Structures are given as C-alpha cells and as structure tokens.
Amino acid sequence: MTGFRNRVVTQTGTVNPDYTPATRLVLGDAFAGGAEGRWLITFEGVTKRYPDGTVAVDDLDLEVPDGKTMVLVGPSGCGKTTTLRMINRLVEASEGRILLNGDDIRAQNPAKLRRGIGYVIQQTGLFPHRTIEDNIATVPVLNGWRRAKARARARELLTTVGLDPALAKRYPHQLSGGQQQRVGVARALAADPPVLLMDEPFSAVDPVVRGQLQEQLIALQTELRKTIVLVTHDIEEAIKVGDLVALYHPHGTLAQLATPERLLAAPADDYVAGFVGFDRGIRRLSFFRTDGLSLSAGPVLPETATVAAAVKTGEPWILVVASESDPTPSGWLPSDRLAGLDGAALLKDVAADPFGHTFTVGDDSLRAALDAAVLSPAGLAIGVDADGRVAGLATFDQLRSAVQAAQAAQDALDAQENQDALAAQPGSGPGAAP
Amino acid sequence: MMWSWIPSNWSEIWELTKQTAFLGIISPLIGLVISVPLGVVAARWRWINPPTLVVVNVVYAIPSLALFIALIPTFGLTDTTVVIGLTVYSLCVILPNVVGGLRGVPAPVKQAATAMGYGPLRRLITVELPLATPVILAGLRVGVVSSVSLASVGQIIGVSSLGYLFVDGEQRDFPTEIYVGLFLIIILAVACDLILVGVRRALTPWASGRDRAPGIRRRVVPGTPVTPVPALWR
User: The sheet that has A390-394: what strands, in order across it?
Assistant: First the structure.
C-alpha cells in the first residue's frame, strides 16, 4: 500500500479517519478513490534536501484525487511551496517518486511536462512586454497554435475568468492587481491542462478582492473540474476553497490531511487545533446545511394586522411582514411598544426595529442561521425561501437540535466509513495506485 | 564668425559629417552585437561579473588617443583603428547595461516563463532580452553619443572626420571652422540620440506611459558607469 494512510497513522498514533470518510461525504460518489478510481498526482516517499542540508520536504506520501482541489497549508518554510514546485519540476525531488497520471514525471521532458500543467503565482509573473491576450495565449503558442487562434482562445478565457474582453490589448501594468491575478489564472487555463498549480495566488490582493477571486475559483472549479493544488498560509482560504486540506508541520511533514469539515471537527493534535484557530466549532457549522432545521411558524403578522391582534399573541416580539400573500420581512416589533396604543391601529403605523439579516432555508449553512439568531433583537433567526419570503423562525433551541443532529449524522457516517476503511486494510484501499 | 565660409566649403563639410556619423554609429552597433552574448554570459554566471566590471572600467579609463596609437602597429592609420577603439569604449558602456537589464528581469516573470514550458534559450530570446531592451538601449544611446564625439580624435592619427575642422581651424587660427565642427558634432549626437529614443519607443510599446518596467532598474550592478558624461576630448 503506497497511500499516505500508514504515515498518518504513525504521526497521530491513531487510525485517522479523516481521509476517506469525510472526503467521500463532501465529494460524493465521484470520490470513490478519485473519479474512476484515479489519483492524478501521487507523491511516493518524496524528500527534498538542499545542498546545505536543509530538508524542505521529508518523506512525503500524498495523493491528489483527480478533479479536486487540494490545498497545502502551513507556516512559512514548512515545505508546501517546495511540494508544489516539485510537481512541475521547478524543484527536483531528492528522493522518491512523483507520478502524474501514473507516469513518473522525471521520465518526461520538463518543458513539455510544464505545458500540461497550469501555474499561477502570487506576483502573477505576467510578461510585462506582452498584451493581456498574448500573455494568456502563451502556452497555446508554445504548443504551436496559430497566433490568431490562440488570441481568440485568450479572449474567450477573459470572459471565463470574469474580465472584459476589451482588456485584451492592454498591457499588464495597466490592470489592477486583482485583474492581473485573473489574467494569471486565464493564462494557466489557456491550454486546458488537467492540472493547475497555484502558489499563494490571492495573497497579494486586498481582502475584498481576495474574496471575489476565491469565489471565482470555486465557480470555475465547479465547471472545469481541474485537479488543483493550491498553496496558502491562510487556513480560512484553505477551508473555503479546498476539497481536501493538507496541513504541514513546520519542517516538511504532514500534520493532517482531511476535508475542511473534518479539519475543523477533529484536529489530529494540538498543533493542528492551534493552526485551525479559535471558534472552529462555529466555523464547522458552515458545512451543515439548514434543510434539516425545524422552524416555527412563529409570531408573524402582516402590516395590515391590528395592534390588538399583535397583543393577543402574547409574544414579546412580533415579526411584521409586508402582507399575507407576500411575507417578506419588514421588521421586529417589541410587544412593550404596543402598550397603550389604540387596538384598532395597524401594525404598519407602529415603528418596528430593523430585522437584521435572514438565512435562506436549505441553501445557507447552520452557521448563517446561528449568526442570524445571534444578531436578531428577538433572538430568533428568520428563515426565508429563495424569493426572500419568510418560511419560518428558528429559536436557539431549534438551532441547537439541528447542530446536534447534523454532528451525530456526520459522526455516524465517519464511524461507518472508518470501519470500511479498516476492513479494506491492508490491501487496495483508496490510497492504492490504480 | 565668417558665415560665407560655410556654403563655399559645404561639400567638404558634408563629407566629413557623413564620415563622423559612420564612425560614430557603426562602432556602438558592433559594440552592441558583442555585448549581448557577453552580457548573457555575465548575467548567468554571477562570478564572472566583478572581474568583467574591473576590466571594463580600466579599459574605459584609457585615453582615446593612447588607445588609437596602441592599435596603429596592428591596424595602421585606417578607419579600422578608430572603429576598433570606439567599439571598445561602446562595449564598456553597453555591456554593464546588458547585464543590468537581464538581471533586472523580475524573478517571478522568469519563473513563470519556465513554468509555462519555455526552454532556456527561448526564454532568453522571447522574454528576457525584450524586457532588458529599454536598459540595453539606454546604454547604446550613451555609446553612440560618446562615439560620435570621440570619432573626432581619430583626426589626430589622420582618420578624417569632423575633427579635421578642429585641427585645420586651429592651425589656420580660423575659429569659424572650429565652431562649425563643434556645432555639427553636437547636432549629430543629438540626432542619433533622438533616433534611438524613437527606436526604443517602437521596440517597447509596453514601456510607454511609464518610465520603466516594474522591477527593471537601470542600475542593478553596483559601481557600473551607466550614464557617464560623454567626453569630447579625453
């Protein structure tokens, strides 16, 4: 068995359930050993030792499933970038083998190998002397495409990465940092390589742009299904964009390999827990959807209802909505504000408090629902449907039940998967090469 | 100033101007052709650079007349002697700029080029040299201007140029001739410089609208004379 599992076992002292079960949960059937059981990139006992004796990567076994995003995360100098650069041979491994689609990368001509691997770096590395379209067309032209065809492809890709094709004739320095980074991604995608390597691609831009670029990457990946290896020092980014997260110790070994959800739920040790950071319990709720959350019809009244009707509910807070037929929220009304008012007055004539933010039932996570409850003056989260109409209210009690149920379901699934994984050992577990 | 002297001697003045332009332009061009491969080598293997700089600076310090005289035994009192001498000076100003220009290509750009699948030679020709072009051309401009000036020194060893007007004017105590020579040399140097500015704009449209490419610095190699004062007489 060449998988990483042996190594993870020795590192943590326990059979680590993180890999297969959780990934299968998130990735679904497609993950049953990678799509069609394939691992696109395989590290087998790879070590990188520099002439001065520094060991950047120490005996690494790692498998990157086909069509998924693997994020390498860790502190500076942990070997994550070295790992990345060994894949396209910008750095040569000292020991071990790296297989791409089953073939040893050392058997291939480096330049040819690299043309089949997209590469995106923090400083963009765009060619200052070439227009945006020619930058993007780089690899197709190297592959012998006619320039006109390559440029047409480049303009197509500008749209793909969310840029205006009118930028095609500009030079890189005429674009903003975020735009340049998008061009970098377009250039990496130009020859439609199956593998994309991204070295801190979003670290040099401001947080707002970074968020946009991350969203763009997730959207692109949903469509393109590349095998992406992304290096970052930002655990939030890893959790946000990764299907799998490989967290490094400071000196070139893996601390944990898991799905983002598992990393938050069950850090392998104190080091991982520390790296993952505070409030991981809350953050993990991002991975649980709200479709299992039970809602109460709650004290909800239309603006056309009377004060008397509101008082009659006996509730401390009443959610006022636009109308019966269009129940979009308009505000929270505290019952003590109704005291002494004319019972025949309509609710729309009484000043209500802002309703804060809502969550979309089914689409949004339990984290969003919990946040909505915390920020609500009434302590109730307003669940809305896709059209923004109130579907129901969730109390803290209901949220707690939903969280417990989701965690229990997850844990049961993990236990089951873990048992399956143990049963499969030793033998051709998902970690074995096809 | 005797203005009537100019039209009556125009054809001779024109011949001398053309000869000066020839000496002053051909030499830095040869210097450029030699500097590029040398610069590529010096930029790649860093240890070569310090000794190269010492040699270049020492050679640059040799007075031009002494250099011409040193070349006479081999090449005689010919244009070749002057062209070789001026080429050596041009080399001294262009070579450090080739090295600096290549070194100034941002590391991420080079890394990205390699990662895209460029071989070393292709990367050099299609990425590094184009990016070094503004800096190399800055060196060429200095080389051309100083060569146009220095070409007149060749007159002393009998190679004709606008320097003839200085020597002749001095011997005949006729200042008009000296002023005309001086004026034409300056005009010639400025004209060549302007042409090279145009060449740079045409070759590097990407660099317009800003002083220089990001990360490309003109002075990368410490102690390199990138823009020495053009010496008319040294």
Answer: A359-360, A381-384, A390-394
